[in-house]
Design brief:
Length: 329
């Protein structure tokens, strides 16, 4: 059996969600084929957890010393949301070590986690996005210039953070500075974009049995003003799958979602958010390692499609084993 390192936690404020997602993967992996190990990547240490005991991970070759016996891993299942799992750092690290690791390659991860660059790139292919601007923590821009560019209301959010952390909707001029400071607590780059009034949806896409599949579309109705952290993970939203949209709009969304997936050279899976305005989908962002916690959208979409989490794990591992051969060659 192949030894599978399920890496979780990470360095961002999404670590608690990653821990939940990692437990889901650990619980559902096929133990007739794989021998799973839980690996926690913390800022001060990398450790393997087994029977409530900690074993240090050697970062030079990603092995663990288990009571004098060196444990090597055949593949890494990455379920770290945010840094360093979703921004490409770990993928590049494992490429150097020639250890297969799930999900897209590091350049795709680096691009998609950067909301601003991803939007600019997709715009060049004709994908609709909201007007926006990027702010750095060390560069000041007047409130008047920001409003002139994006208008009110607007959305302020970290450029490279997930789970809707640090995000705000701004309706009035005097609320903008507070929202900017809030976002800068999560990232040293923030994106401010025009608020789009419409139907928010989440679209899961995966490569499964050599075919790109669009999962049932989820409509998101938040109790809050938008789909923020509370709405995502604390039950403050209603998620309707399949989404209550017309057949023609559904087909348009699926076509665009598949196009975006292909343009960004994704493989295995992704989940993206869109706003439908007057029947037209506007791309918001892409998650290359979507959540697999109890409240996460992607597993619910899989269930409706009739694909088990165990099947997805198998699928991701086998694609990654195939991709690493290209790097070795």
């Amino acid at each position: 059996m192949k030894n599978v390192a399920i890496i979780m936690v990470g360095y961002s404020n999404e670590c608690s969600i990653s821990l939940q997602s990692g437990q889901t993967i650990f619980n559902n992996i096929n133990r007739n084929i794989f021998n799973p190990f839980k690996i926690l990547l913390l800022k001060d240490k990398w450790i393997l957890i087994d029977n409530n005991k900690e074993y240090k991970i050697n970062k030079h070759n990603f092995t663990a010393d288990i009571n004098g016996k060196i444990l090597k891993f055949d593949i890494v299942y990455n379920i770290i949301h945010g840094s360093p799992g979703e921004d490409g750092q770990l993928k590049a690290y494992f490429n150097i070590l020639k250890i297969p690791c799930t999900w897209c390659n590091f350049h795709q991860s680096a691009l998609t986690i950067n909301k601003n660059l991803c939007k600019i790139f997709l715009n060049s292919f004709g994908i609709n996005t909201a007007p926006s601007l990027l702010l750095y923590n060390n560069i000041k821009l007047s409130i008047e210039k920001i409003i002139k560019k994006v208008g009110l209301p607007c959305i302020v959010k970290p450029n490279k953070s997930g789970s809707s952390l640090g995000i705000s909707k701004v309706d009035k001029k005097n609320e903008l500075l507070f929202a900017i400071n809030k976002a800068f607590k999560e990232d040293n780059e923030i994106i401010i974009e025009s608020f789009l009034e419409g139907i928010e949806i989440s679209v899961g896409v995966l490569t499964y049995k050599n075919e790109i599949i669009i999962l049932p579309i989820t409509e998101i109705i938040s109790e809050n003003v938008f789909f923020d952290y509370e709405a995502k993970y604390l039950g403050k939203s209603k998620e309707i799958t399949p989404a209550r949209i017309s057949y023609s709009t559904e087909q348009k969304v699926k076509k665009i979602a598949k196009k975006v997936y292909s343009i960004l050279n994704m493989y295995e899976l992704s989940r993206s958010e869109y706003i439908i305005v007057n029947g037209e989908p506007y791309f918001l962002e892409m998650n290359t390692i979507p959540g697999f916690s109890e409240n996460s959208i992607f597993p619910k979409q899989l269930k409706i499609k009739g694909i088990s989490i165990s099947e997805i794990i198998n699928n991701a591992i086998y694609i990654s084993l195939k991709m690493i051969k290209q790097i070795k060659n």
